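Run log, item B.
One chain of 155 residues. Sequence copied directly from the ordering sheet:
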Amino acid sequence: MTQATTTGGQGSASTAKSAPDRALDRLTTSDGKISVAQSVVQKIAGRSCREVSGVHSMGTSGTRTFGAIRERIPGSSGPNIAQGVGVEVGETQAAIDLDIVVEYGVAIADLGRSIQRNVKQQVELMTGLEVVEVNVNVDDVFVASDDEETTSRVS
């Protein structure tokens, strides 16, 4: 919806639209309505999150364990790209929750902002939905195993 407003008595009209109205314009055409499934947003968000350097894996400890078992079953579809991603999708907006494991030594606050920015941009670009929030929950820190050291300090 556009509204004409008069400012300063000069009679200039403003046709600025709010963000939900812009999203509605992108998803409604003269030919019909475009809807985006929740699973589509989950996959885009999961992939976009994993692209950011410093993310080791995604999901809570329980879902990561279940995923590791599922991957070992012959004939399984492999890793689930939507693991650790929760979304709520409306007609024009989406909210995204991400559970991640970070690599040791990474600045978590900076990583979180990078994830939020990348996920928001990709989901909005690919779906036309307005992303109202991206919540990043750090579930664990990955520390490389001590087995990688080849020399022993004790004789």
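Observations after the first pass:
- Residues 4 and 10 are 13 Å apart (CA to CA).
- The beta strands are 28-29, 32-33, 55-58, 85-89, 93-103, 130-142.
Flagged for discussion on Thursday.
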